[in-house]
């Protein structure tokens, strides 16, 4: 008889990894996320939207960094608004902020290990988990280089390594492809598909192409609200030759935004 | 657990008897995976032929393992104490505190008619460092760190301990190792008060409020009157100790307020 682990038979108590109802989050005094309704399960979700749409503020709220100003937010089946205990959710969370500060004197390995320690991973498993995360983002050759000696793209990959070191159930990546060269972006898409098979990955980006190529679902926000949610194929189907954009996905994106703005103006 | 197969079935399996049907083989194999006793019986029933095959395979595997390079061991990660405690840039604040205390010590040295300025300022000494320890400006990776489960009262206390470890020896030296209890206990009480008040209005604001209040209510009048207040007489050391304990206990009750770093 094969031993079945409890993780395999555990009942999924949450139908959605991310569930936001009428979510409101402030950025300074401005209400950057205003009444957002969002339900995301496992898979890779691309978060698209124009500048100032509230993408980064939404990411911060989902990463439990920013406190929601209103509405309900449930992550992995646990409420994270108000005074709830955030530790169980944070242990299962991976987050790459848009601009991440780092300690210039740390090596890549020390940085990822420090983050693994902060994520309260079992001490014995940290060195191998760190090595695996660094290998997965293709930084093995630079594992013992200090962070201040790395290029922008390498730093971004070190950031991705710290986000995936604890095999998160929920992975939030804010502009992960900035500074990556075309070949690295292809590798990154491959990594995304791999990660999305058994966890909820939310990727915020401006590159519509990345979303169309690597995501199972597209989420479009504007002015702090959900505008559209659907598969990349239906995003492409929204646009036709008359809309702005160089590719089918870009035309679909601009078609949805234009229609939404026309409805809002009415 | 299923019923153990008979020794006869095991022998037939070991001899790969074609008379044993597929379903029986499956159920036997499933049982063998989970039953060490039956595996031992199977080992006893093996034929010479299969023993020879196993020995050949084992020999070849050993040769192959010896020929291959050893798998690379993941390098050990060292996390020195320095990195865990001083990732934050607390040092400028501590340096400022040291400078102020040194100035106070000099003032006492040249103007002996004044009450001990070091003693008057001692309660406030850790507060700038404590305020910096719980603000996002102090830690370049604050956004990464504040999304981890380690963020909370424990992290704040660890950083506060680092501040105290630096400030307390400076206080002792600046005060010339006189009246150590009255140097240290009020500063510990003020640290605990800053954390407790900080759980309601933010550690940064709490530290500023306490510094302003102590300066206007105690420091300024004492210097004007050239006399130490009763609060800082040796007799009140016990009261300061009790206050520290109470405030620290209350801070632990308010742990839920420290789950997120303040965003501003």
UniProtKB/TrEMBL annotation, chain A:
Q: Which domain of life is it from?
A: Bacteria
Family named by the database record: Belongs to the ABC transporter superfamily.
Q: Which PANTHER family match?
A: ABC TRANSPORTER, ATP-BINDING PROTEIN (PTHR43335:SF2)
> What name appears for this protein in its UniProt entry?
ABC transporter ATP-binding protein
Q: Which molecular function terms from Gene Ontology are attached?
A: ATP binding
Q: Tell me which Gene3D superfamilies the record gives.
A: P-loop containing nucleotide triphosphate hydrolases (3.40.50.300)
Which keywords has UniProt assigned to this entry? ATP-binding, Nucleotide-binding, Transport
The ABC transporter domain extends over 18-248
InterPro entries per the record? AAA+_ATPase, ABC_transporter-like_ATP-bd, ABC_transporter-like_CS, P-loop_NTPase
UniProtKB/TrEMBL annotation, chain B:
**Which stretches are annotated as coiled coil?**
none
Q: Per the UniProt record, which residue ranges are transmembrane?
A: 85-107, 113-135, 156-174, 180-199, 206-225, 237-256
The UniProt keywords, alphabetically, are:
Membrane, Transmembrane, Transmembrane helix
Q: What superkingdom heads the lineage?
A: Bacteria
Q: Does the keyword Transmembrane helix apply?
A: yes
Q: Can you name this protein?
A: Zf-HC2 domain-containing protein
**Organism of origin:** Paractinoplanes ovalisporus
């Amino acid at each position: 008889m094969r031993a079945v682990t409890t993780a395999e038979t555990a009942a999924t108590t949450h139908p959605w990894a991310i569930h936001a109802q009428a979510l409101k989050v402030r950025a300074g005094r401005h209400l950057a996320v205003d009444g957002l309704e969002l339900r995301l399960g496992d898979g890779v979700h691309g978060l698209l939207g124009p500048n100032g749409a509230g993408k980064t503020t939404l990411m911060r709220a989902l990463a439990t960094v920013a406190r929601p100003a209103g509405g309900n937010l449930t992550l992995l089946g646990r409420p994270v608004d108000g005074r709830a205990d955030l530790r169980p959710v944070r242990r299962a969370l991976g987050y790459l902020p848009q601009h991440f500060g780092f300690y210039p004197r740390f090596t890549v390995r020390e940085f990822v290990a420090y983050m693994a320690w902060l994520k309260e991973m079992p001490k014995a498993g940290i060195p191998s988990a760190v090595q695996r995360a660094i290998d997965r983002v293709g930084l093995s050759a630079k594992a013992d280089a200090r962070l201040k000696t790395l290029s922008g793209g390498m730093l971004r990959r070190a950031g991705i390594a710290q986000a995936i070191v604890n095999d998160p159930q929920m992975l939030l990546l804010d502009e992960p492809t900035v500074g990556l060269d075309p070949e690295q972006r292809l590798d990154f898409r491959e990594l995304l598909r791999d990660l999305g098979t058994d966890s909820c990955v939310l990727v915020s980006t401006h590159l519509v192409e990345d979303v169309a190529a690597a995501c199972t679902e597209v989420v479009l926000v504007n002015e702090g609200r959900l505008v559209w949610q659907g598969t990349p194929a239906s995003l492409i189907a929204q646009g036709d030759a008359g809309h702005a954009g160089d590719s089918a996905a870009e035309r679909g994106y601009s078609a949805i935004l234009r229609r939404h703005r026309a409805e809002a103006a009415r | 657990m299923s019923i153990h197969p008979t020794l006869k079935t095991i022998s037939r399996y070991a001899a790969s008897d074609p008379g044993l049907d597929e379903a029986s083989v499956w159920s036997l194999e499933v049982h063998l995976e989970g039953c060490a006793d039956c595996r031992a019986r199977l080992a006893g029933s093996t034929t010479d032929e299969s023993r020879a095959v196993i020995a050949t395979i084992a020999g070849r595997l050993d040769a192959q393992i010896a020929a291959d390079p050893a798998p690379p061991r993941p390098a050990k990660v060292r996390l020195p104490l320095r990195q865990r405690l001083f990732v934050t840039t607390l040092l400028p604040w501590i340096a400022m505190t040291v400078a102020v205390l040194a100035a106070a010590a000099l003032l006492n040295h040249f103007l002996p008619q004044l009450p001990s300025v070091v003693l008057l300022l001692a309660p406030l000494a850790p507060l700038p460092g404590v305020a910096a320890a719980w603000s996002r400006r102090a830690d370049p990776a604050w956004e990464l760190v504040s999304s981890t489960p380690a963020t909370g009262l424990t992290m704040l206390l660890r950083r506060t301990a680092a501040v105290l470890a630096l400030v307390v020896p400076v206080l002792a030296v600046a005060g010339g190792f006189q009246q150590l209890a009255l140097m240290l206990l009020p500063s510990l009480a003020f640290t605990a008060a800053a954390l407790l008040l900080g759980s309601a209005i933010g550690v940064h604001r709490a530290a500023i409020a306490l510094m302003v209040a102590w300066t206007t209510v105690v420091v300024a009048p004492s210097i004007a009157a050239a006399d130490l207040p009763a609060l800082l007489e040796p007799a009140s050391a016990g009261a300061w100790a009790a206050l520290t304990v109470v405030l620290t206990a209350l801070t632990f009750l308010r742990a839920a307020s420290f789950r997120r770093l303040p965003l501003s």
